[in-house]
Amino acid sequence: MIRQIRYFQSVVRNNSFSEAAEECHISQSAISQQVQALERELGFSLLERRNRKFLLTAAGEYFYKKSLVLVADYEQMCRGAARISRGGEAVLRVGYLRCWCGREFHMALEEFSARYPNVPVRIEYGNHEELFEMLRNGDVDLNFNDQRRAFSDEYVNLILTAREECIEISSRNPIGLLPSVTARELKNVPCILVSSKGQRETEQGYYHDVVGFRGEFLFAENLEEARLMVIGGQGFMPAEGAVMLDEPGEFVSRVALIRGEEPIRRNYCAFWKKDNSGYYVEEFADMLRRQFEGTVS
Asked: How does pLDDT run along the chain (297 residues), one tens digit per residue?
């Protein structure tokens, strides 16, 4: 019955038997027959059919809502039983750059979770140095991180993208009207960094000494807090990984960051230890790679 319920949910979600059939990889006639079999099993109608269209009956609407919870509980029960049968939990531990603004990691995570629903992904957030330490100490299996040091032969170093750096600044600030800006031109505007308390000095040192920001530094615990500070006019934020073609929102302007006349570029990579190369690690890294190949850098 669970499979039939899934078919019914797909029909309702897509509001179409044909689209549901495509989603479930079966024929339209087969999915229609499965929904009818479910109705016979239940003893009442779920759908009121009108030529090529349908409406949910009152019972069908109630059953649909409750079935979503039921199937979610069933899937969780299966995952728990599978872990017990294996004698432990298979888990992929991934380090994630705390200040990342792009969507590629999200899409890779969604793809991995859909393909391996019984393998939980544990996300560990950090700034560059925190992530490096976690990987070195074996606390994560794979890191999604920026490149700030020379590659080590101890690790697989997969460059995912080389992004042109930009900043986000309040749309009310005149700097937001410029196509590009240098670090020197931002000397009178505070720089807002997303950082844990323990990494503030390290992050400030990097953006001061390497990137060249010379003004005041402010800190936020997470990306949402930093964006609210930007919108409130408190300063600008380096937009790690953001693509200039992305829409940052009506309250924020995105401006390219240049040095001289050239854009500043930074590598973003997947890192994992060579002696920890396993199926899930390489599979997730490959999903990340494909997602970045499909976006504009």
From this structure: 888 999 999 999 999 888 988 888 889 889 999 999 999 999 999 999 887 788 999 999 999 999 999 988 887 777 666 556 655 567 899 999 999 988 899 999 999 999 988 888 999 999 999 999 999 888 999 999 999 988 988 899 999 999 999 999 999 999 999 999 999 999 999 999 999 999 999 999 999 999 999 999 999 999 999 999 999 999 999 998 877 556 667 899 999 999 988 999 999 999 999 887 667 899 999 999 999 997 654
Please name the amino acid found at residue 200. Answer: R
What stretches of the chain adopt beta strand conformation (E)? 47-50, 53-56, 92-97, 121-126, 142-146, 155-164, 166-170, 180-182, 191-194, 217-220, 237-238, 252-259, 262-263, 265-273
Strand order in the sheet with 265-273: 121-126, 92-97, 142-146, 265-273, 155-164
Burial of 120: CB neighbours in 10 Å, binned 0-12, 13-18, 19+: middle
Residue 227 to residue 233: CA distance in whole angstroms: 10
Distance from the first to the final alpha carbon of the chain: 46
Answer whether 6's CB lies under 8 Å from 71's CB.
yes
Its sign, for the CA torsion 54, 56, 59, 64, is: positive
Please give the model's pTM, rounded to 2 decimal places: 0.69
How far apart, in whole angstroms, are the C-alpha atoms of residue 220 and residue 231? 13
Give CA–CA dist 145/131, Å, rounded.
7
> What element of type H or E holds 134?
helix 128-136
Tokens of 266: 């930074």
Please state, in angstroms and rounded to a whole number, the distance separating the CA atoms of residues 47 and 12.
9
Q: Where are the beta strands (DSSP E) in 127-249?
A: 142-146, 155-164, 166-170, 180-182, 191-194, 217-220, 237-238
